[in-house]
Amino acid sequence: MPLGRPSHRHHRTHSSKHRKRERVRAESLALDAESTDDTTTTSHDTPSQRVQFILGTEEDEEHVAHDLFTELDEICVKDGKDAEWKETARWLKFEEDVEDGGERWSKPYVATLSLHSLFELRSCIINGTVLLDMRADCIEEIADMVLDHQEAAHELDDSVRVKVREALLKRHHHQSDKRRSNLLPMVKSLTDSDLRLTLSLSLSLSLSSSSSSSLFLSFYISVDTHFMKKIPTGAEASNVLVGELDFLERPIVAFVRLSPAVLLTGLTEVPIPTRFMFILLGPDGKAQQYHEIGRSMATIMTDEIFHDVAYKAKNRSDLLAGIDEFLDQVTVLPPGEWDPSIRIEPPKSVPSQEKRKMPGVPNGTVVPVEVDIHGEHHGPELQRTGRLFGGLILDVKRKAPFYLSDFKDGLSLQCVASFLFLYCACMSPVITFGGLLGEATEGRISAIESLFGASMTGVAYSLFAGQPLTILGSTGPVLVFEKILFKFCKDYDLSYLSLRTCIGLWTAFLCLILVATDASSLVCYITRFTEEAFAALICLIFIYEALEKLVHLGELYPINKHSDLDKLTLTYCKCVEPDNPSNKTLIMWSERNITASAVPWSNLTVKECLDFHGHFVGTACGHHGPYTPDVLFWSSILFFSTFFLSTFLKQFKTSRYFPTRVRSMISDFAVFLTIVFMVLIDYAIGVPSQKLQVPSKFKPTRDDRGWVINPIGRNPWWTVLAAAIPALLCTILIFMDQQITAVIINRKEHKLLKGCGYHLDLLMVGVMLAVCSVMGLPWFVAATVLSISHVNSLKLESESAAPGEQPRFLGIREQRLTGLLIFLLMGCSVLMTGALQFIPMPVLYGVFLYMGVSSLKGIQFFDRLKLFGMPAKHQPDFIYLRHVPLRKVHLFTLVQLTCLVLLWIIKTSPAAIIFPMMVLALVFIRKLLDFCFTKRELSYLDDLMPESKKKKLDDATKKAEEVRGVYADGLSIETRVCVCLFLMTLTEEMTRAQWRSLWRAANHYIHLKHQTLGNTLCYLPQAFSLSLF
């Protein structure tokens, strides 16, 4: 029962008779509350159980918990001097103090409290006034309520009452007032006018009168808008007022909860309504003691559990139970083993407090937090429908409502940064792949075809795919397949482009069959074991190839390792006729009608000498030409500088320099800014480093081919049918590359909200593969590292983070615009040759290294790999280390490492054509691990394999609904528990999601009528409790 009354809405002077009547009523209410407290306490032995009971009560509109901003104001009235309330500290999540100089706020830090002050706070709640759900419109009414109760308890006389009331109503001076007084009015009006007007109008509409609206508007004109952005929407205020008054003989303590919350003008630093108020005024000489009690009250209000208790408390004992439960969780540090003056930095991640809400746990017992890793690995997107194109139809229905928002959500500065970064990152591999393919196919498919194919395929995929966050690119196995196919055609005098077209059309047809039969549902068997092995391989390939290309520059620009500095003036290098020309050289001379004796060898340039297959002689020459150490070393500087600068700028968001918006912008544009900076430095230095070569004309590389290829050409008719055999292997390659990358992108930790479309993705890849085959263009499929980099560049974090709190990861900005612009601009690159030719290739190689290294973050395999070199005491607190023996963790890692090494060997060997088959074999290797590890161990090390018996799961769900109906009939607790145990024996293959459904059905009715069921379940077998939780 509330201890207050709603009759004090308009204060007027009370007569002594009226006060006496109120005093008698207050005493009777206090007796009723104490009797209620005694009854409730006996039914709940510990504060923890009491708090769990309080938090388990149903919420009403007036007791819904909001985020809290807490402010500590202090006052000191001595010798009748005029004084005012001064803000000394504030809490949004962590404590911030006004420094001794009074000029600035301290850094946010974790509040450290003395145990003595917490016990004194508890005594204040016991002996002070507690007013819950009071109605008031202003600070004057609140002061009168508090003083009326103090006077009713014979703790205050009339003369002191007037002075205390004057003290409570004194002006509040906030820390931001001094800072605002130094700002130029013109600057303030220009920067804050829009936000001030919007917020003030929205909040003033909730005020009851025009006069209060004008007061609020005048108050908000001086609000710190920067700090206001950090306060969550809908937050309420908790004001803590402490101080010493020289005319008091005994303390005045009051805890007030208003209902509803009221905006009290001038009381709080920011214009948000006040819900709670704690008042502690005492005699002179104990200012520090009052200050520590006020800090304790403010800190405990920021505690997640007590915060909820304060909103739901019905009487004094509920508040005391919340304080006692908080004291149970407090850790005490010995005074001689640490320095209390040290401010503890806020942690990067705050542990969940859900364990404190769990029923049936002995008071003070540490409860291990189970991470939700047992849930289903994949959502409904991969469930087989049992009808033709059923999965595809569901994908279209799932994605269609978000199609317009996919473009609207792309209108962000972060998307611009992502687009610029990935355009530069995608251009180089596409051109490089085209160059390598041109060498392998004698120019039949080269750089211009690669650019055109990538642009066309990427645009179509970005417009119509189910998961537009995936970036398409070329892959190594495709290049190996093209090389083998071209060699086969050359050996048997077949048309390469025609046979390739047939294979591509067969592959597209097979992909269509896979889409029609919902074959993508098999992706559910690809667990983290396979994902990480594949992703780690691709990341390592990116790193290896970036370093390999840098080493290759050492061959193009050699250095003299045996130089004699004293003889540098005698060095020379010239081109001469080869003494023993090779057969290849003689054939080239014959084809070009070159006579060796007629060539002026000594006057040839380096490029001409290489073109005529001449030899370099001299002390300043290497096998490939003159020594050019400046180019090699400058390329190395560009390479590593690009990597380290990109990494540094990407992490700039967490630095201490510049405002948050500037840091965030620098972090978003990190790679693009690095590329621009390196291009400018390279241009200013002038060292002739290797540059990006882009085709300048849009036409096929060879004149003997067009943009449409005949599938038969000069080949025999039977090649059309025979092409189905290599197409089968190509289909496996496309399917595995595409779907493993899609699984990695669609991971649940990315918090994607718009769903995915495995079937629609595969359909688009198949359609564009057919188009590219007919046009004689390269094939493109999902590129793992580029896709991961795309997702990482679009991460969303909370903007209203409390001071000192790390921004929370909210998800990914899901949109189609970045991919669309990347590939549109790639197609226009032929028109931008003049600008792109200034980009040094070592800079792009450095970007490759950055993407490979950054994509390794978050791969659990590498975390487990580092455990081999760590002593147990230095190992991180990973969840799987708590529940799985270390030897089993090492065994799992060794199996995964062996698979990775085998994949690497096959990928780099002539047998690379069977690479997709080996990736497929990882699924079966993972299945064999079921014989070496228990399901519980695999649930922590890897996602559980999906169960094939869907019928049992459906039956389990039906049984859960039946259980809900049985409970409505009012069976006893013992009967219900037995029903749960019986159903458990029937559904032993249920996943954790089904267990939750069953458990909630069983507990729904029980929890309302028998709060002690949690204690009963503690005596159930351990296996039963583990399977439930």
TrEMBL record:
Q: Which GO terms describe its molecular function?
A: monoatomic anion transmembrane transporter activity; sodium:bicarbonate symporter activity; solute:inorganic anion antiporter activity
Annotated Low complexity bias: 38-47
Tell me the ranges covered by the Bicarbonate transporter-like transmembrane domain, including all copies: 387-946
Gene name, per UniProt, is SLC4A8
Q: How does it sit in the membrane?
A: Multi-pass membrane protein
Q: Which Pfam families match?
A: Band_3_cyto (PF07565), HCO3_cotransp (PF00955)
Family recorded in the similarity comment: Belongs to the anion exchanger (TC 2.A.31) family.
Compartments it resides in: Apical cell membrane; Basolateral cell membrane; Membrane
Pull one GO CC term from this UniProt entry. apical plasma membrane
What are the record keywords, sorted?
Cell membrane, Disulfide bond, Glycoprotein, Ion transport, Membrane, Sodium, Sodium transport, Transmembrane, Transmembrane helix, Transport
**Name of the protein this chain belongs to:** Anion exchange protein
Provide the Band 3 cytoplasmic domain boundaries.
66-340
Query: What InterPro entries does this protein's entry cite?
Result: Band3_cytoplasmic_dom, HCO3_transpt-like_TM_dom, HCO3_transpt_euk, Na/HCO3_transpt, PTrfase/Anion_transptr
TM segments?
416-438, 450-474, 494-517, 529-547, 631-649, 669-686, 717-736, 757-781, 820-850, 912-929
Residue numbers spanned by region Disordered = 1-47
Biological process according to GO: regulation of intracellular pH
Ranges of Basic residues composition bias in the record: 1-23
